[in-house]
Amino acid sequence: MIAVTVSTAVIDQGAEFEAIASTGAGGIATFVGLVRSDDGVAILSLEHYPGATEAALVTLCEQAAARWDLIGARVTHRVGDMRPGEIVVFVGTAARHRGAALEACAFLIDRLKTEAPFWKKETRGDETSWVEPRDSDDAAAARWKG
Q: Is the pTM here over 0.85, yes or no?
């Protein structure tokens, strides 16, 4: 079971967990990403390319499922304007055993940071700036290649 959602709606992490837990797996791993208030960020705005973004996330889930024999993978990502403390992304993986679920969850969050077409803008006071890709994100994603 692969489920991908990209929406402006607030993410209900309880509902997301229940959906991935209903797979009957022996191990479930989840990641919840929050908007940080680093350096006074008041608003994080995410834009995406509808259709292409969802397709990229499905492809990543399919890669994870093939690599770790997952029972389920779920990615729910918000777009639009968000404030510090709000959930940006929920990633959940389900497998027969915890190791596969944990590794697949790490793979998905590392790879979606670099391969899913999202664009981030941060607002601090009256200033708005686009967020450039980070070398640390590239390094984290690179460990899964090959």
A: yes
